[in-house]
Amino acid sequence: MNRKVLVSCAVCILTFMGVSDTAAQNYLHKFGIEVNGGLREYGGDRGTRYFLAEKPTYQAIGGSFGYYINPSFDATVTGSHGMLGHRDDSYPRKLGFTATVSDLTLGLRFKFNNGKLMPEDSRLKPFLVAGWGGMQSVSRIIHNVPGYSDGFVNNRSWTAAHWNAGGGIRLGITDFMDLALTMTYNYTYDDNYDGLPFSLSKVRLNAMHDAFLYHSAGLVFHFGENDGAYQFRHEDEVPEELVKKVNLAAKNIQFETASSTIKQESFGDLDSIVEILLDNPTLNAYIEGHTDNVGADDDNLSLSQKRSDAVKAYLVGKGVDESRLTAKGYGETQPISDNSTPEGRALNRRVEVKLYYRK
Question: Given strand 284-290, what is the order of strands in its sheet?
Fold first, then answer.
């Protein structure tokens, strides 16, 4: 099999399997910012040079901003800036171009981890993305028009409409950061930055406008507590007696000192929560871990997450579907009492279990 075909297949497989547009924020956070870098590959009147078909490679940097709309869609602003080019095999002069191309688009990202196709809290997050916007190119064109600029046209600048579409995958490293791998096809309503067809007197558009692939790898940073990701209905929509039972049981959940090990005397209360969830299969639970302010902030945040995870693991071990449970640690950031007294600190060391129906 042709080596180029093998390389093309490998790139596609890696892209869609996650060896991981944009940012994306996740079900816990409203916003996401991505910083990325990668390779651009030209396709246009001079030929298609996709999937490592040509050397040297042309590089670019990019970024994006994402806003959580609902479990399936994010709004995105994406952009990139870098080089693009191609040289053919003509003799004695290799005709072609080198261009600096910048693009900016507004778009949408569709997430497969939307709670229907895949769990929302999945660490593996495939997506599709598309956007519309504009681009600017500044080209240096090597041509074969006799007697004009010794075969060069420098700084030919154009601005045009531009769209892109593609996909990729994000791999959750933490709740606040993802590794992202993305491939997008970028199409420009312009036929100028590659210098073909070439005209000294006017712009001549050809049927094949200029385009390029952008393969990028980046990091996505999530922030902003996402109140809309899990929308809790009004309390009176969850039967009040169930809310009271779960709240009372959660208050009695205790752990070994400075540990996420659940004390045995808490098992009965946890079992009562299990019973409620199994008897009400449309209910979901959001498990929050909290600490007092004794110790380092990072240590408290880590401990609270481990404790909420431990409660989740207990419920799953008793037969509750994991997709109905979400665990989140808040450390010392949400006290309900004064940390200056032993009694207040004891109240702040807690686990809360909130029942809700997912909208």
Answer: 325-329, 284-290, 350-356
Pairing of the two strands 177-188 and 96-111: unpaired
Q: Note whether 186 and 245 are same-domain residues.
A: no
Q: How far apart are CA 343 and CA 347, in angstroms?
A: 6
Write out the H or E segment, with its range, that includes residue 7: helix 3-17
| Contact in structure between 219 and 170 (CB atoms under 8 Å) | no
Residues 245 and 212 reside in one and the same domain: no
Identify whether residues 333 and 270 lie together within a single domain. Answer: yes
Two tokens, residue 62: 């990019």
Q: Is 230 contained in some domain? A: no
Closest CA to 177 of 28, 14, 305, 326: 28
CA distance 348 to 334: 8
Q: How many helices (H) and strands (E) does the chain have?
A: 5, 12
DSSP, residue by residue, 188-220: ES---TT--S--SSS----SS--EEEEEEEEEE
What tens-digit pLDDT sequence spans the chain (359 residues)? 344 434 444 444 344 333 333 334 555 678 899 999 999 998 877 777 778 766 667 899 999 999 988 888 999 999 999 998 877 766 666 777 888 999 999 999 999 988 788 877 788 999 999 999 999 988 887 766 554 455 555 667 888 899 999 999 999 888 788 999 999 999 888 777 776 654 444 444 445 578 889 999 999 998 876 654 454 444 447 888 999 999 999 999 999 988 999 999 999 999 999 999 999 998 999 999 999 999 998 999 999 999 999 999 999 999 999 989 999 999 998 899 999 999 999 999 999 999 988 65
Instruction: Give the Cα separation of 205 and 47 in Å (integer).
Output: 16
Pairing verdict, β 325-329 and 284-290: parallel
Beta bridge partners of residue 312, listed in sequence order: none
Domain count across the chain:
2
Query: Domain range holding 42?
Result: 3-225
| Within a domain: 342 | yes
Q: What are phi and psi of 240, to 5 degrees?
A: -60, -35
